[in-house]
Amino acid sequence: MKISAYTFDTRGPGDVSGLRALFDSGAERAEDLVAVIGKCEGNGGRNDFTRELAMHALEHLVGPRIGVPPERVQDRVIFSFSGGTEGVVTPHQIAFFRSGAPDRVRRPVKRLAVGIGHTRAFRPEEIGRMAQIEETARTIRQVVAELGVEDPADVHLVQMKGAIPAFTAQEADNAARAGAPLRCDMVWSRAASALGTALALGEVPSERLSDEAVCRDWDLYSGVASCSAKPGLERTEIVVFAMSPYWEGDLAIAHGVLADILDADGVRAVLRRAGLDPADTAAIRARLVAAFAKSEADPRGTVRGRRHTMLQDDDIGDTRYSRCVLAAVIASVLGDTRVYVSTRAEHHGPIGGGPLALVVREASE
Amino acid sequence: MKISAYTFDTRGPGDVSGLRALFDSGAERAEDLVAVIGKCEGNGGRNDFTRELAMHALEHLVGPRIGVPPERVQDRVIFSFSGGTEGVVTPHQIAFFRSGAPDRVRRPVKRLAVGIGHTRAFRPEEIGRMAQIEETARTIRQVVAELGVEDPADVHLVQMKGAIPAFTAQEADNAARAGAPLRCDMVWSRAASALGTALALGEVPSERLSDEAVCRDWDLYSGVASCSAKPGLERTEIVVFAMSPYWEGDLAIAHGVLADILDADGVRAVLRRAGLDPADTAAIRARLVAAFAKSEADPRGTVRGRRHTMLQDDDIGDTRYSRCVLAAVIASVLGDTRVYVSTRAEHHGPIGGGPLALVVREASE
Amino acid sequence: MKISAYTFDTRGPGDVSGLRALFDSGAERAEDLVAVIGKCEGNGGRNDFTRELAMHALEHLVGPRIGVPPERVQDRVIFSFSGGTEGVVTPHQIAFFRSGAPDRVRRPVKRLAVGIGHTRAFRPEEIGRMAQIEETARTIRQVVAELGVEDPADVHLVQMKGAIPAFTAQEADNAARAGAPLRCDMVWSRAASALGTALALGEVPSERLSDEAVCRDWDLYSGVASCSAKPGLERTEIVVFAMSPYWEGDLAIAHGVLADILDADGVRAVLRRAGLDPADTAAIRARLVAAFAKSEADPRGTVRGRRHTMLQDDDIGDTRYSRCVLAAVIASVLGDTRVYVSTRAEHHGPIGGGPLALVVREASE
Amino acid sequence: MKISAYTFDTRGPGDVSGLRALFDSGAERAEDLVAVIGKCEGNGGRNDFTRELAMHALEHLVGPRIGVPPERVQDRVIFSFSGGTEGVVTPHQIAFFRSGAPDRVRRPVKRLAVGIGHTRAFRPEEIGRMAQIEETARTIRQVVAELGVEDPADVHLVQMKGAIPAFTAQEADNAARAGAPLRCDMVWSRAASALGTALALGEVPSERLSDEAVCRDWDLYSGVASCSAKPGLERTEIVVFAMSPYWEGDLAIAHGVLADILDADGVRAVLRRAGLDPADTAAIRARLVAAFAKSEADPRGTVRGRRHTMLQDDDIGDTRYSRCVLAAVIASVLGDTRVYVSTRAEHHGPIGGGPLALVVREASE
């Protein structure tokens, strides 16, 4: 099998002209579309409707082409949109296609493999606790195995939409009275999703994980997780990006962990791991397909030892600031403003830092 | 004469505890204070009162110590505050002192020299036109001469608070009817101040300057100007930072022009000019005193060839975004979040870019 | 013919469940839909994509039901959405249907009549000048005539989406050089649309209108205009709401002009004109169908003689404040939070004020 | 004794020209100043420095006139500033002076009496619990007694700055482990202050109060409390406004409880209680001295039965919206934009509603 990827700048959240042209040209088939990941120009918050607009437009583009009603498209294709193109970020979408039939031919060079999975539906009391961590880990391991990945170190990005099942006030009261208050919100779902990733890939030993460790023991983290959580979602949606000798194409992925949101050296290290020379901007420009990162306004209130004000601003939220900062730093190294940074990074990298993954096109001979 | 400088992190705009401790310790005398330049955590806009709070606190700190009423302190000392510590920026103040008597002893090594001046009072119709440009240039040349600067290339920063004299609706109408509508606002005053700097230092030949060239011919610019304009101010306040063989101390300044707000290479170039190795973060940390830059959300709507959304956002202004981005990029290179970025940069560097100046302490033997 | 109207609260900009249920129940036919007017929870500005989402959802709901592609639906039905539900405003939509065949039977009681029209396409240089005013007036008069309206005073609301045709920098330059700089923007298009309404209905004598009067002579205004302008639109879309003896149904409309955004007395006056007692909240609740108003942060900087800060706030725009204030005042009188307030009101009512129209259901016997 | 009051519009948070002129004219003595209450044009949040600027300016105005250092002025005079003049609100200050000697002469007409008090210093674990409630109540009762108030119903406003003593992470951990997690924040301090007021004045029977009832039993509330809480404050500052037969002057106060933020009828009821006819705008304009209210974006998500979006907006906070709405409604009834609304109203009036107090000048004969 083979992965191909296309990056489109968009003129607005509802702009699907790039993908439509791709379909119309016959270059790719809608049936092969695996995932579309993108940045929209919303605020990334509760009243950000740009993601819904992007998905609405994609559903109506793809549905008729694959013969399913628009509202069923997301059963087949993962749409993962992050609001907030603060600063220099160019609103864009990356579409991943999977074509060809699986085979068991082991090739000498590993290539990008992309697989998707869904956890079972969670109950509200499971979110943010071991039940979510373990089921997330189980699902990731299964996807990883299906991709023919030979080493957990070959997994470079686990993009997740974390479950937050609906619950009643009565359920919340019952849970509180039973001594295990619900953790069924965005913070905890992101945290457990990241720890589930770390567990699946051996980044954290299982014996250190517990309900108590979540959102408390910040030394435990994944270097490849990237989770946003979505109220109302019952199952966590998972897209695994890895290197596999059973896949073809000209794409590769590498990753690293940034120590903080100013870590330009960390960005350069990932570039090198991806086979790119940080000084060779022309090559980067030619071969970079996508950059995915998680940002965070350091909750300790400092960056590089000095006070920041991101957490005390009632006009602009810390999520907008941290995305703006990290995207600027990454873009300044890559020379490219098509950077996907999503924010809040509990157990995604060390506190104040976070993972970065780069998808690149292999150099042509 | 000798310049000394101190950088203080502040806990809030009204925090003058650093300077107070300096005075109380006897290390510096209030009489020697030349200028305090700082970043406050406001929005940098019309309803930013953090600058007023900072100045109010400084006036009441300094006034009694130099024997003048608080409201007269700014006749003697330049206070230049910029609102907006978006992202990683640490609110801070840099205080410059000038001590010793002038002499005419030419020393083998040039050191930082700081001088201040004021233009004459402007009439509203002069702002944004040749009258402002020429008077600004005249004043700068005079300050430069007084500092014993031997080469215009030794001037590295001209920090200005640009005049915007008050005017009546009647005056505005008269001017419009006379075919020369008033330009008496922030945009034009910043623009003419920058061109005045360029004229004074020979960055732009006088024959290319005209009323028509202002805010139109963007090829004309200064690489060392840094102007904010202030409604109600009749005279432009000017602080010149230069290298002079007639000054002592352990401070130096260097500058460069950033091509755009992602220009990390440009920041490294200025570091090198200041005698610092961009890879030697410990040395930078030890010796960096201040970083001053101007930012701009590229008015052409793109950065590095791709669309940005800073100019179409009705929730957050482009000035906040561009400060956030450029400060993040500079801080990522310097490893220091005490970065002074002020925004809107008409004729300050090329369109979309702007000047950067670094004040450093010389390496001790 | 007969107008019927339905008001739906929405759970989000893309929520069309109310209208869908109406269609599915057979109560109304999609073919009879004339217009949907609504408030969305965006910021009402350049980066407000909630209006696009609402329209996208409606186009995909209505298109298949009337047998036209989604992108052609707006050729047949007017969708008019205003972003910004600041404060107490409930996001909602009002759908108007027109059924039955026209006849020439004059009935003893006038009822609500709704008609739509489009101006011809405008050239950029016409916007904000007499050409736009006169063509807008011509179109309104034609729609009014078609509705069988007997008296211009029976027109109570002219809802417009004002044209702003695209133009090149070259066209703008040429126009400026020819001494007639383009006015092709939102301010001027709204202004000329309102004056066109005033001209059509005799609110302003034609001899007082001129290119110079636009955005200058604020004594000239319409008390029934409500225009938003949309970049890229070539023709102004017009919906006329009037009382006509040739129409049936149980709906009526009345209007008045509010003196300022605190004019609760003005709201009560319109209620009375609509046949409702301001003290009878149960009747208002039962019979009120829709409230349409235009708001404005008084450009003179004061309300009721005292300073307001809406125009000096760089965190929140004056458009958001003025909508919030006026909607709160109207809702406090009506006892209903489904209030449509759109903002910026050049020549819509006196400076600082604006029109208010109420659609009500006639009392059942 | 006698209370006099002056209302000043301000040109900015640091504008104390009105009070200065009053002192300079000799009309009032700085020694008699009891309290200054005002609205500043900040955001009312954590990064609102306008309150600090206002206090800084007042301290430097008053200090020299009463012979104490600026930083000690607030030991003698209460300064109570609320940020946020959203919408139509005019930034303003009301200064209260107390002159004459206390006597025991009971007069036939009650007049406004103003007294101040401070609770003892609180420990962090007391905040939000019965200890804070009871000490607050004790202090209020004492002030009320000193004022010669004969009936708790004669107390119309208890303006408080609620204590939030500093604490260490260790103390917080200890408290959590001991089963009584700290409540030492703004929400709980406001809540307990309001309940303390209710207890002092008999609005709530003591047997219904408990640690558990705080922020849970919303049926318990005060109709006269108005508390903001301030991190770092050890003692709650209290200003009691009441009617007493032992006081002179021409001022009176009345209050009422608004059912929600649209309750214009409630505003009119308070006007009538204050002896003013809501229809007589000239009299209101002439005699109104100050309006104090508390607002709240109804936490149940609806106003008058319909959805509001104030709690789901990540660009603008609910505190800004609710102040804007309620101030607009009050101003629309009073015809005056000098309205003091502070926000978040736990146990201040019923859920979604809050108290309103009006200070008026008695009609001259």
What does this structure look like?
Four copies of one chain form a homotetramer. The first copy, chain A, is an alpha+beta fold. Chain A has three domains: 2-99, 60s Ribosomal Protein L30, Chain: A, CATH 3.30.1330.170; 111-241, 60s Ribosomal Protein L30, Chain: A (2-Layer Sandwich), CATH 3.30.1330.180; 258-361, Cyanuric acid hydrolase/Barbituras, RU C (60s Ribosomal Protein L30, Chain: A, 2-Layer Sandwich), CATH 3.30.1330.160. Helix content of chain A is 28%, strand content 26%. Chain A contains eight helices and 14 strands. In chain A, the strands form four sheets. Chain A has a four-stranded mixed beta sheet with strand order 1-4-2-3, covered by helices on one side. In chain A, strands 5-8-6-7 form a four-stranded mixed beta sheet, covered by helices on one side. Chain A has a four-stranded mixed beta sheet with strand order 9-14-10-13. In chain A, a hairpin with a 2-residue loop joins strand 11 (302-303) and strand 12. In chain A, helix 3 (130-146) crosses helix 5 and helix 6 (264-273) crosses helix 8. Chain A is globular, with a radius of gyration of 20 Å. Chains A and B meet through strand 12 and helix 8 of A and strand 12 and helix 8 of B.
